[in-house]
Known about the structure:
Layout: E1 9-13, H1 18-33, E2 37-42, E3 58-62, H2 85-94, H3 99-109, E4 113-117, H4 123-129, E5 134-137, H5 142-154, E6 167-168, E7 177-178, H6 185-188, H7 194-208, E8 211-214, H8 222-231, E9 236-238, H9 249-253, H10 263-271, E10 278-282, H11 291-304, E11 307-312, H12 329-332, E12 337-341, H13 346-350, E13 355-360, H14 364-373, E14 377-379, H15 386-396, E15 400-402, H16 417-429, H17 432-447, H18 452-467
Parallel strand pairs: 1-2, 1-4, 2-3, 4-5, 5-8, 8-9, 10-11, 10-13, 11-12, 13-14, 14-15
Antiparallel strand pairs: 6-7
Helix pairs in contact: 5-8, 11-16, 14-17
Amino acid sequence: MGSNSGQLHIFFFPLMGHGHLIPTMDMAKLFAARGVKATIITTPRKVPLFSKTHGINIDIQIIKFPAVEAGLPEGCENIDSVTSLDMSHKFIKATKMLQQPLEQLLEEYQPSCLVADLFFPWATDVAAKFGIPRLVFGGTSFFSQSSQHSLQLYEPHKKVFSDSEPFVIPSFPGEIKLTRMQLPDFTLQEVETDFSKLLEEAMESEFTSYGVVVNSFYELEPAYADHYRKVLGIKAWHIGPVSLCNKDAEDKAQRGKEASIDEHECLKWLSTKKLNSVIYICFGSMPNFSDSQLFELAMGLEASEQQFIWVVRKGKNEKEEEDWLPKGFEERMEGKGLIIRGWAPQVLILDHEAVEGFVTHCGWNSTLEGVASGVPMVTWPMASEQFYNEKLITQVLKIGISVGAQQWTRVVDGIKREAIERAMRQILVGEEAARAKALGEMARRAVEEGGSSYSDLNALIEALRLHCP
Ligand code: UDP
């Protein structure tokens, strides 16, 4: 079983980006709570992120990333800080340099299993060298993982005549339509690159590894969970929403970076608001908005006449001038809107009874956190696999309204204030809220004893115990 005591010991090795690190931390907590020894492997600067485990014992092992040798800027050990396409590809490719140090750690600690990020396809062979199973963690939904396989297999995007002509995802439940404009730039690349090869290997590793751990719950996407397992034939366990393992305010407040607002101050502000009266606006850990887009968003917010908490990744500059904010905006919004500059305690906010809606970029963690909190969403996808997640929210689950973003992009621009105002008003009066609330209850039941995710986590632990006698 790897560890001396006969206890199951799992090594978790996430990609160095908040969208991967945060759910890994939750996953490790979930396993640890079931008596499994959990160790997270990460780069030096990410260690503080894992320091607040509140009584749950999780080990951290440091792995050093030779960024400069990999052609990246000194100190670059985090994908959130690279913004260009070229750099993020370079970063992910460079993580292959971690193979040797990972092998050293496996040699030394002899864990029973390795849960490694989808972006580390080489980890399957590394685990095999040590005779242990490798599980894949992709950090997204059954829906989006399956749709990407469909696109890779059938290439429907190559059979349309323009970037805006919709196509249906083939051999996939639910007549889901997309356009070429909504696909990631790397999916559209015609020539084979090192990065496209890596992605192919990553998708292949879902089939060739021991199986896939999915942060989702069965009742959320049964047709797609079945499709993934039965049609694609991938062995998978759903164990989410993993964020629900954070029960008290402190756990909910301290996920990812240090929050830029004191949790008590935030709760105090929310406590002055009526039940279901505040909209929370946040676009994940890597938003990149043009100043004019931020300005339009502020105008849309004001026009919607809603109370809000808006998370902006910009700090005030020395002159305290903010060209992206309409003149006098904060004074006019006093008491009505709260701007958090930096990092927000997202789960704490979403779970507050005053919050009634979520404007989101449809990152999978945010999506699932919104689902778990039972709030309807305004969807504003930008990059990664967010346009797939938007389809799940708006077309399948019908718990969200789209702001109308049509273009996959690394710098967000072009959404007009009227579209923002319309979606924010509509979300409050539509049927989405009731459906979202019901789904939130299902999410909670899924992780409770006897629930679908609770049982699947048990099944996974059992399978690993049998595999590693
Ligand atoms: N998050 C947070 N505060 C912020 C921004 C993000 O706590 O101000 C957390 C959020 O709760 C989620 C993660 O960061 O767990 C973002 O992951 P997601 O998959 O939604 O988006 P990504 O950052 O990968 O685009």
